[in-house]
């Protein structure tokens, strides 16, 4: 059985990887509505208030825990190099974004991050399959709710793992291309997924037998006759949700945070196309962060305008640079981000 190298799924990631082919976004996606998935949020770079520009596309997905706390993947925001600092300092959260082109041209809500929390047991390496790949962003101000009852905007969690069944219905949601290298839509997309057992998933990835844990949940999808790819997530979807439809409650409940997949997104030969951090195992940690019970300087990053301006004044925004890669070759994801950053980072028109 073939085993596949991994692709962490962020456009903006501090993960250093070798032998990784770059592929974008949701595979075999169809249009999704924020009315159906109101807890969906997107992460953008916006440095316009500090002499920089903004990203015209989101670099990671996220979901809304409450009016001031956002759930995403740790590898979207982790690190201490220049690119990671750009993400930490200049990320804005945009809730319920139907289309990427709405920002910044429309009157779209965006809120800066003031604190970043990542799990103390997170390992920032794909060789270990990104264990505990989960982070929470605390916002500078509260989000304005989409619904008259704000709690309808917030993530709903499953009480147990009974959804781990081939009969369950799952949907991964994110912004991006419908397949590799084809930018057909700026709209929010969804794709249907099916549960894959831990043993099957472990066989799909190099190191899976040693490092895949019960804190991760895996999925696959049918092969499209149009793309010849399986449904799945890919680069740019990191941090976003996979929802399980609870038929009894008639509600979508988030069961995972998008983490990684095979190096070829939607690989029809792989038994697993998407791996997520499973949320039932992190409820206590999430509650502790929201309650303000975690104050470790190791796993908590505080962000201020003073830090942002100091970084900009030092020339940090101008040091984000691209790295070339041959066609079909490998490219670390920070290089991908740098290329995207230069291609998408725009000066605000005054």
From TrEMBL:
Which CDD domains does the entry mention?
Tryp_SPc (cd00190)
The UniProt keywords, alphabetically, are:
Disulfide bond, Hydrolase, Protease, Serine protease, Signal
Give all residue intervals belonging to the Peptidase S1 domain: 26-291
Q: What superkingdom heads the lineage?
A: Bacteria
Q: Which Pfam families match?
A: Trypsin
Q: Which InterPro entries match?
A: GlyGly_CTERM, Peptidase_S1, Peptidase_S1_PA, Peptidase_S1_PA_chymotrypsin, Peptidase_S1A, Trypsin_dom, TRYPSIN_HIS, TRYPSIN_SER
Which PANTHER family does the UniProt record give?
A: FI18310P1-RELATED, POLYSERASE-RELATED
- Protein family according to the UniProt entry: Belongs to the peptidase S1 family.
Instruction: Spell out the protein name for this chain.
Output: Serine protease
